[in-house]
Structure formats: C-alpha cells, structure tokens
Write a structure and sequence with these properties.
It is a single chain. With 364 residues, the protein is α/β, with parallel strands linked by helices. It has 2 domains: 225 residues, no CATH class; 130 residues, Toll/interleukin-1 receptor homology (TIR) domain (Rossmann fold, 3-Layer(aba) Sandwich). Helices cover 41% and strands 19% of the residues. The protein contains 9 helices and 13 strands. A hairpin with a 2-residue loop joins β7 and β8. α1 runs parallel beside α3 and α6 runs parallel beside α7.
Length: 364
C-alpha cells in the first residue's frame, strides 16, 4: 500500500521470459553485425566481454537492514477497517502512517517484471534510490497488526523474487554458451557468404572498421529490460458475463463518444492471455466502471480480480472506481460490500447520463 507516494504494482508490468528472449536475440544480432565487419574478431576476450555485458543482476532484498519512518496523514474513511464509527462517513481522519524502507541491490526494473510463476495478487510499492518503500497505517496502536502487515509485503516480495531471480540466474548461467553458439553460427554463415562473394570476382570492401572494447574498458551497468509504451485507456469496464446485453450497449456508446474504453469483447482475441490482458487494461486505464448486479455479487474469479485491482489503484484524493447499479438495490449493495453503499453511483437505465458524466470527468 502507498498513501501519498507515486508508485507501481510490483511484478505486474511486463513478461520476464519474453524480455530475456528479446535480450538474447539482441545480443545475437550484435554479434552477427560485428563479425560481418570484423571476421577475425571472435576471440575469447570478445566472448567474455559480451557475456559480462549481457548479465542481468538479480534483485536481493536486505531484510535485516529494513527501517521505518512515520508521519501523520489524513486517511479517507474507506481505508479504515470495519468497526470504526465516523461522524462523517465521507470524511478523512488523521492517522499515523509507517513508511517502511527496504534496501535492495540489483536491477530495479526486475521489480516490475512478471515471472512465469506468480501469484494472482500484488502490492503497491515505490522505489527511492536503492530502497523499496511501502506504507502501513496505524489504526489501533497494535504493534502485532503492523508487524503482520509489514511481513505480508516482505513475504510477497521474497516469494516473487524467488521466481524472478530463478529465471534471471538461469539466463545468466547459459549466456556465455549461447554467445559461443551464436559466434559459431555466424562464422558458418559468413563462410558460406564469402564463398558466394568469391564467385562474383569483384573485391568487397568493409564500410567501416570497428574494434572490440579494450580489455580494461569499463562496461556500464544497464538494465536490459525492454518495455513498450502500452496503450492508454480512459475507462476499464468491469462486469459479469451475464450482463453482456447491457454492457455491450454501454461499451458501444462509450466508444461512439470518442472515449478510449477497455472492454473484453473489444480487446481480447483468440488465444490471448486473459490475466495479462486484464492486468494491462487495469493499470493503463484512468477510471474503472464497475457494473454491480446480482450476477456480479456471485463473486466470480475474474470480476473479483478486476475489482481488487481497481481498489489497489485508488489512493488519497484519487478516485478510480465509478459504480453503476444494474437492477440492484441499496440493500443488495450493502450486503455485498458495505464500503460501496455510500459511493455515488449511476443507474444502468441512464446510459446517456453516464456518457455525459464520463466526458466531464475526463476533461478535469
């Protein structure tokens, strides 16, 4: 959790396996281009330099060095656990916030990567220098609860890093052998090409003369995580499949109004990774329209997953969830989630009004 800092959802942005494959392809391409112009340059030194340069440093958290800072912050009532009584149900109340600072080493970009093995929930964190930051609110002056919340985040990080570092270590350990194979394959291709050029009877001159790095040159430490700029959406629609007749009309009207909408029927194709596609939509949408209905209250896997993801994005003074009540009553909403009852909601019978309100929100 983060209260007033800008952060991100850990291990939730881009596929690690694909990134490592892209990195290896890039290295092989560099080898081929280099040897085309330096046929005798495939020395042991060259292979060593490429192997060192291509290594990715795993992330290690230094749990024994963790420390905390505290501050007093105004916390909205929706963040409070059940059992608190408020004079103003929509107000904010001052509470102590513990910000935990967890030192780490390694490539910070890995904290955003998605390993092949992962768990279906995440934690919001921030990075400051070589520290991972996360917040815990002190609601009851109960040290045991604060420690439990702290340890929950730490254990999440440790668990995910086990999978991430496992893939990175496997990549690093095989890199030198992969580079040697790429050198041999490139030599074979060049030999065949030289034989072809010899038949032309015309000398071929290189366009430039490049050399490998000096033996004692400094190899910069860089991140090899390649990220593409994802498409941004104005609205993500979270709904139960039983409500498709209404939701399809709503999504069509939103799209017709020129609003960028993430709607599964618009975005998902045959064979797409459902979880990855939903995660991308959740984190790259400005707002989440949630269609609450009797079917939604059945607490299905993906509707709950999407709603939890939208809740995780909400911060102090940052509204994300836009509720729509579809043929349900206030009492039914309260039974599903009391914290949602007092959120201002639109009725599904007023699609035109919903579009007008969305346009107003997006102009702010």
């Amino acid at each position: 959790m983060l209260i007033s800092k800008s952060g991100f959802r850990a291990f939730n942005e881009f596929d690690l396996r694909q990134t490592l494959e892209n990195q290896l392809k890039r290295i092989k391409s560099e080898i081929e281009n280099y040897l085309k112009e330096n046929p005798s340059g495939a020395t042991a030194e060259y292979i060593s330099v490429k192997s060192t340069y291509g290594q990715i440093k795993p992330v290690e958290v230094k749990i024994d060095e963790i420390y905390a800072t505290t501050s007093q912050q105004m916390i909205p009532t929706e963040y409070f656990p059940s059992g608190f009584f408020f004079l103003d149900e929509h107000g904010e109340y001052e509470k102590e916030v513990f910000t935990f600072h967890l030192p780490f080493s390694g490539d910070p970009a890995l904290l955003r990567s998605v390993a092949s093995t992962r768990i279906l929930w995440t934690e919001e964190i921030a990075i400051s220098g070589n520290e991972i930051l996360f917040d815990v609110i002190n609601f009851n002056n109960d040290a045991d609860i604060i420690q439990k919340d702290r340890d929950k985040v730490i254990n999440f990080l440790k668990s995910q890093l086990t999978h991430v570092n496992g893939e990175v270590n496997q990549y690093n350990s095989s890199l030198e052998e992969e580079i040697k194979k790429a050198v041999d394959q490139t030599k074979g291709k060049l030999s065949e090409h030289e034989a072809f050029l010899a038949k032309l009877g015309t000398p071929i001159r290189p366009s430039m003369d490049k050399s490998i790095p000096e033996e004692n040159s400094t190899i910069p430490v860089v991140s090899h995580v390649v990220k593409e700029n994802p498409k941004k959406f104005d609205v993500f629609i979270c709904h139960a499949s039983e409500d498709k007749p209404f939701v399809a009309s709503l999504a069509g009207a939103i799209k017709a109004a020129g609003i960028e909408v993430w709607y599964d029927d618009f975005q998902l194709g045959w064979g797409d990774d459902l979880r990855s596609a939903i995660d991308n939509g959740l984190k790259n949408s400005r707002y989440g329209v949630v269609v609450f209905s009797k079917a939604f209250f059945a607490r299905k896997k993906w509707t709950e997953y999407e709603l939890n993801g939208l809740f995780a994005r909400e911060k102090v003074d940052q509204k994300v969830i836009l509720p729509i009540w579809h043929k349900v009553t206030r009492d039914e909403i309260a039974e599903y989630s009391p914290s949602l009852v007092d959120r201002f909601a639109k009725q599904s019978s007023s699609i035109g009004e919903i579009i007008d309100e969305l346009n107003s929100l997006l102009k702010k």
